Amino acid sequence: MILTGFSPFSLSYYSSQVIDQFQFTACVDIKTSEVEYMHKYPKELYGSESNWEGGIATLVFPELTPSGEIIHSFPVSHYLYIAPWNSNTYKTVYGGSNFVSTIRSFDWEPRARVPREKETLANVETDFYLAIRYDPYRKLYYRVIWQGINDIDLEKKTIKVIIMDEQFNYMGETVIGTWKQWNWSNIFVTREGLNIEFISDNYELDEDFMIFKTFSVEKIDK
Questions:
Q1: I need a labelling partner for 158 at 20 to 30 A (CA). Which of 88, 111, 149, 183 fits?
Q2: pTM for the whole structure
């Protein structure tokens, strides 16, 4: 069993050694209950003088490839980081948007105990890559983006989906709506397409049911 965690704090703040020690994947042997930890944050993203305090930028979104390797989608990188479950050696492939520019770390000091208003403003203005899912029925990858905006209203941030083929070649992307309507953390693939939890304006929180809508891809004849 493979469980993916994350660091809720900026890895470069507490000690320069943290990024060399922190491993976010727990590999659990079901028979023996032994746990082995793997996969470190890439230094080029989270090391040196970078400041990713706040909890969103350090999330890790995993997905299995058809060959059994693990893709890691880091919110702050256009690239995808791929590694075997039992190795810390990454290979990278480009999996970015055509409309997202350079993502820069947050510009503030100190790097911990960040005031909430500064954290919220940075999260509003920054583009973040989120979950990635493989579609075995269409042999596609979907990667979710939480788009940055030049506005103080966090609720206006939109969710976009990038589509890539099995070799990670870019095929297109589209906005599906605001993040308040689409729960990007609750998505899965079925034969019908990419299912995303939908939260309507008059939706009352009820643990007895959830609403999902399906993002489907159609072939356009030229």
A1: 111
A2: 0.87
Contact at 8 Å (CB) between 138 and 149?
no
Neighbour-count burial of 154, counting CB atoms closer than 10 A to its CB (0-12 exposed, 13-18 middle, 19+ buried) = middle
Q: How many helices (H) and strands (E) does the chain have?
A: 4, 14
β-sheet with 23-28: strand ranges across = 2-4, 23-28, 35-40
Q: Specify which of 18-32, 160-174, 187-201 reaches the highest per-range mean pLDDT.
A: 160-174
Residue whose entry in the numeric block shows the structure tokens 């995808």: 80
Q: How far apart are CA 21 and CA 56, in angstroms?
A: 20
Q: How far is CA 220 from CA 13, 46, 54, 114, 164, in A?
A: 49, 40, 42, 48, 16
| Closest residue by Cα to residue 132 from 189, 188, 73 | 73
- 29 sits in which H/E element: none
What string of DSSP letters covers 138-203?
TTEEEEEEE---SSS-GGG-EEEEEEEETT--EEEEEEEEETTTEEEEEEEEETTEEEEEE--TTP
Chain centroid to CA 85: how far? Answer: 18
Do 172 and 147 meet the contact criterion of CB atoms below 8 Å apart? no
Q: Looking at the chain, how many residues does it have?
A: 222
Most distant pair of Cα atoms in the chain: their distance: 56
